[in-house]
Write a structure and sequence with these properties.
Helices cover about 0% and strands about 55% of the residues. It is mostly beta strands. The strands form two sheets. Strands 2, 4, 5, 6, 9, 10 and 11 form a seven-stranded mixed beta sheet that branches. The chain has a four-stranded antiparallel beta sheet with strand order 1-3-8-7, with no helix packed on it. Strand 9 and strand 10 form a beta hairpin. The chain is globular.
């Protein structure tokens, strides 16, 4: 059974930091491209960051470049998103996504709220 479980969301003040984690099971994480998406109320889901299977290539949305860092630990089957200098416009539900050889998998999402 494939599972992606996100954690680490919460309420943070503008300028603060959060670290999201995604724990994978039921498929081969080490050969999968991993991505973080987010969806704010009334908006479409958008790609925030992606990382290649061995972590050699990363890509970021322009809106988060220089503030967010995606990383992975294939041995621990986790993918993380370090978010610094958070802004109110970063408020959204954040989703972990795996692009595996046999399908596309999603977590249930974790809420991030940036507010004073």
């Amino acid at each position: 059974q494939v599972q992606l479980v996100e954690s680490g969301g919460g309420l943070v003040q503008p300028g603060g930091s959060l670290r999201l984690s995604c724990t994978a099971s039921g498929f081969r994480l080490s050969t999968s491209t991993m991505k973080w998406y987010r969806q704010a109320p009334g908006k479409e889901r958008e790609l925030v960051a992606s990382i290649s299977s061995v972590g050699s290539r990363t890509n970021y949305a322009d809106s988060v470049k220089g503030r967010f860092t995606i990383s992975r630990d294939n041995a621990k089957k986790t993918v993380s998103l370090q978010m610094n200098s958070l802004k109110p416009e970063d408020t959204a539900v954040y989703y972990c996504n795996a692009v595996a050889w046999n399908g596309d998998y999603w977590g249930q999402g974790t809420q991030v709220t940036v507010s004073s």
